[in-house]
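Our consortium's second objective concerns turning raw sequence data into structural hypotheses that experimental partners can test. To show how far this objective has progressed, the report includes one record in full. It was chosen at random from the queue rather than selected for favorable results. The single chain below, 117 residues long, was entered without modification.
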Amino acid sequence: QVQLVESGGGLVQPGGSLRLSCAASGNTFAFAVMGWYRQAPGKQRELVAVISSGGNTVYADSMKGRFTISRDNAKNTMYLEMNSLKPEDTAVYYCQYRSVSNSYSYWGRGTQVTVSS
């Protein structure tokens, strides 16, 4: 089983920045496709960004240009750098680990991001 722990969430003013981290257990992190998703109250969970084992990235249009996804395979950790934050970014942000060998997905518990003045 893969365990995922998100951290770095909190309260930030509009226009501010936060960096989220997702630490993964196990020895297959380097081969997994990783992603960030978010869910605001009363809304469906949506894709934020995805990064492949080789470092290729895909962003949702609303996050493109403001958010940056990255990974450090030596540390079994994925990151999400969020800049120019807006109140609409307020949500619980979840880390996803997708095994390329069996296509099974693992999820973290999420970290709360609140953007408010």
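The partners drew two points from this record. The chain has a mean pLDDT of 96. The longest strand covers residues 91-98. Both points have been shared with the crystallography group to help prioritize constructs.
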